Amino acid sequence: MTVDREQMLRSAAALLSRRATATMDEVAKAAGVGRATLHRHFAGRDALVRALEDFGLREFEAAVDAARLEEGPAGGALGRLVGESVPSAPLLAFLITENQLFEGEEVNEGWARIDARISALFQRGQQEGVFRIDLTAAWLTEALYGLLSAGAWSVQTGRVAPKDYQFMITELLLGGCTRRSVER
Q: Contact at 8 Å (CB) between 56 and 88?
């Protein structure tokens, strides 16, 4: 039987984003493999975390590429980005919620590339008059990461239907939670 390394990583991220202290035995069980198989792919927890880090950054960068952030109106590009993030959302949630586990220049470079592209999208939207200018592009980028993580968690726990992930995140980020007819 061939073991799908990417599926093991996705299963590990889904478990570890909910239970950061899960053992390698629990990770193996969640991935549907034995501990020995898990260890053949990842020599220990540190190796697993490094593999998750690398895979997650590659997956999210691929989602950013697929979203074509430079094309069309900024709001539409943001919606595409959220939609493209669906397959990598649990990995992204793990990367964001467990960022203290990661260090190293390559990781920082990976996040810097992604941050720059997403911040540029928010800046473009601000220049187009679509996004608020009283919130920095850096803050909007961090807010997006938080919403993507929360969305992944909500889908994993069954609190949100997977089909609603893109709509709910995009609408909350673009529209906020204040009703238009209500004064603050």
A: yes
